[in-house]
Amino acid sequence: MTDTTTTFKRMKDLPSTHLLGTGTPMCAGCGGLQALNEIYDVLGKNTVFVNAAGCMTLLSVYPFTPFRGSWLYTAMASAPAGAQGIRDALDILLQNKRISTKDDLDVVVLTGDGAAYGMGLSATSGAMERNLDFIYICYDNEGFANTGQQYSGATPHAARTATSTGKRGFIGDKKDLFSIWAAHKPTYLATVIGAEPLDLVRKIEKLKSLKGPRMIIALSPCPTGWDYDPKESIVIGKLAVKTGIWPLKEYVDGKITHTKLPHPRIPVEEYLKKQGRFAHLFKPQRNEELLVELQAKVDKYWEDIESV
Amino acid sequence: MNRTLLTGNGAAAWGARLARTDYIPAFPITPQTEIIETLANWIDNDEMSGRLVTLESEHSMITAAGAAAATGVRVFSATSSQGLLYAIEMLYNVAGWRTPFVLVNVSRGLSAPVTLEPDHNDIMATRDTGCLQIHCSTCQEVLDSTLMAFRISEDPRVRLPVIVNLDGFYLSFTREPVNLPDANTVKTFLPPQDSEAAVFRASSPTSQAMAVLGSSPYSYFRYETHLAVMNGLQVFDETANAFAEHFGRTYSAIDAYHCDDADIVFLMIGSFATKAKVAVDQLRAAGHSVGLVRPRLLRPFPTESLQNLLRGKKGVAVIDQNLSMGKGGVLHMEVASALYGQQNAPPVLLSFIGGLGGRDFTSEEFFEMEKLTRKAVETGEVPPPRLLYNSDELRQIRKLQAIAHVERKELSE
Fold first, then answer.
1. pTM
2. Most-buried pick from A108, B83, B146, B210 (CB within 10 A)?
3. Min CA distance, A12 vs chain B (Å)?
4. Count of beta carbons in the 10 Å neighbourhood of residue B360
5. pLDDT on residue A3
């Protein structure tokens, strides 16, 4: 990403105040809310957020909303279909000149990983297949956080969740939603994290100028679900990038580009040991085998990238 | 007025077309598919404006329908059976959003076992969603009810989805002569939507379907929706009057046939009630004082009209084409709750279950139901719900089972 394409050249170009209202019931240190704040500042108020069941459903509790624009809660499985209905209706109204272009809205789906990786995947696939002009933001806190962090399709290998409490934690692997979404050839697709705001706002700025399905997966450190002190959210977020656990990348025109290469990559252990959900890897004794396995997975990913 | 032969599905599609529908979220399912095929064909060949989008499920289809209606366009959709059930989570939701649109359901029995033929368990499952329900028995009624449904749905006192129900095969694929209302007259009967409603616009942001904390706002909104459905009683009558003025056809919330002087009355909904109508004629020819009531409107339930129609009757035979497992017919329960404790209410109310998966009713069965009801009137003893099935049908099933057993035995040797 070159500096000539963005108005966000350095940290001080970021907005100093947020558009999203304060006083929401999100947990202290919510990485999802941090990402949303940064995203909303760029997207602006001429938006309608279409939400699926999850933590952020509680952003808008009658009769209050932190959004300056519009909001529609749908259900867990079908937020992209809600976006389809609104987009189609706005297009019909614009086409028939029943509304002016000033009244048009960007339609933004906002769901957690439970909906994005699982129940809502079919509706998301359908929306992309129909080339729906919309933005999808998945705040990925790697579990069903709103119900107490049970494992989801986004939970990483070995993480302890409310439904994976054994010595090895979660025995499955985090689903590669980026690749699944990329296989649909959307207009734009990127991973972001609130702890890297410059990278994030540049991506949102870019997708805002495009049309068609524009997809964002925001890794969202979750003090409540991941079991760490809320003040550590930024540190953990930065470590997710520096260890290579959360690759920051984008997909445009069939090409995947990594937007922030972790050089030098620090050991994943630095990221894991900060979180209670991985404490069983270190206590009562080190689970060397599992730590090696986790490091190897990350190494393999980056070797494949760097060898290209 | 243009008279033509139309299937029930064709009539529903014409209703959507004449209503100048803007948006049709769709998903194919038998026996409804002809409706969306017809609409898609008109749109593709510029005979109709509007946009049809096939979603990836009925759940998404109803989400898109509600979301588009909440953005201020006129929406029509159609489904059947399993599709309706798949959509039910969203039917509750879009009613809660107070979005006006029309959904046609072409009734078909539910799995398992899977069947294509009609009964009413699908539509009965949506009874408590907050959607209004109009039941049709002819193709003309399908078209006219669809037009009326838009006006009722969009009335500011209602603002809720309205489901128009017709029976699969018996209506969906049956051609009947239908008067096509004049498009310009429809425009005066059904003007563009109310522009005062809150919709999604950049200049007037709105939040819809927000979460509530605590029971008080929850109860408040649930009661509001219930009261809006109840408003549908008056709005239906007003709409029916306006429809009669515009098109000369009159639809009451309950269709009554030879009811005034009857002492025994059949109660049925949908197209199979036309069979009961024939049976009433036959029974009357044989000297029996019999009538038929056929509720068109099931939600809101026209309690008072039903009480008035049935006051002083000796007995009622409620014929349900649905089965609430472990209890019986849904209509029977609804009618019982409307009549219980009312002065001069019919003292006996019999329950018959039939027509499941399109099973036919014979005249003999109507004669038998009348006889059993009259007997109950005389003795004061009401028999338990009767599941209509005859010895011939049972013999056929036994035969199939015997063949299957022989086959399995031979194959395993």
1. 0.97
2. B146
3. 29
4. 11
5. 57
Pairing of strands B132-135, B297-299: antiparallel
Residue A104 has pLDDT above 70, yes or no: yes
DSSP B150-172: HHHHHSTTT-S-EEEEEETTTTT
Question: Could you count the other beta carbons within 10 Å of the beta carbon of residue A2?
Answer: 5
Rg of chain A on CA atoms, in Å: 19
Inter-chain residue contact A74 with B205, CB threshold 8 Å: no
Beta-bridged to residue A144, according to DSSP, are A150
Enter the ipTM. 0.97
A184 in reach of chain B (CB within 8 A): no
Q: Which of residues 121-150 of A touch B (CB under 8 A)?
A: 122-123, 125-126, 129-130
Q: At how many degrees (to 10) do helices A79-95 and A121-129 cross? A: 30
Give the DSSP letter of residue A102.
G
Interface of A with B in 62-91 (CB under 8 A): 62-63, 65, 67-75, 77-86, 88-91
Residue A1 — very low, low, confident or very high, per pLDDT cuts 50/70/90? very low
The DSSP string of A146-157 is GGT-B--TTPPT
Going by C-alpha positions, the residue among A306, A134, A160 that lies closest to residue A225 is: A160
Tokens of B185: 């007259």
* B99 CA: distance to closest CA in chain A (Å): 12
Query: Which among B210, B216, B218, B221 is the top mutation candidate for probing chain A, defined by the most A β-carbons within 10 Å of its own β-carbon?
Result: B210
Q: Determine, for residues A130 and B202 on separate chains, whether the beta-carbon distance falls below 8 Å.
A: no
A234 in reach of chain B (CB within 8 A) = no
Q: According to the CATH classification, is domain A3-306 in 3.40.50.970? A: yes
Which residue do the tokens 């849904």 mark? Answer: B330
Domains of chain B: 2-195+207-247 (3.40.50.970), 254-392 (3.40.50.920)
CB contact under 8 A, A75 and B93: yes
Our CA angle for A34, A35, A39, nearest 5°, is 120
Kindly report the backbone phi and psi dihedral angles of residue A215, in degrees, each rounded to the nearest multiple of 5, phi listed first. -115, 135
What's the whole-number mean pLDDT along residues B18-39? 98
List C-alpha distances in Å: B211 to A136, A191, A213, B404. Answer: 21, 29, 27, 54
User: For B23, which of A57, A58, A89 is closest by C-beta distance?
Assistant: A89
Largest interatomic CA distance in chain B: 77
In the predicted structure, residue A283 carries a pLDDT above the cut 70:
yes
What radius of gyration, in Å, describes the C-alpha atoms of chain B? 22
* CB < 8 Å to A63, chain B: 210
Cα separation of A60 and B85, whole Å?
29
Q: Which residues in chain B touch residue A72, judged by CB atoms under 8 angstroms apart?
A: 67, 70, 97, 200, 207-209
Q: Could you report the per-residue pLDDT of B131-180, keeping only the tens digit for each?
A: 999 999 999 999 999 999 999 999 999 999 999 999 999 999 999 999 99
Interface test with A, best of B58, B200, B220, B222 (most A CBs within 10 A): B200
DSSP alpha helices (H): ranges in B45-86? 58-69, 81-86
pLDDT band at residue B1 using 50, 70 and 90 as cut-offs: low
Token output for A172: 């499955």
Computed over every residue of chain B, the mean pLDDT equals 97
Candidates B390, B392, B391, B378; CA nearest to B350 is B378
Element (H, E) at B123: helix B121-124
**Alpha-carbon distance values, A307 to A240, A247, A300, A303, B110 (Å):** 22, 16, 10, 6, 56
CB pairs under 8 A between A and B: 156
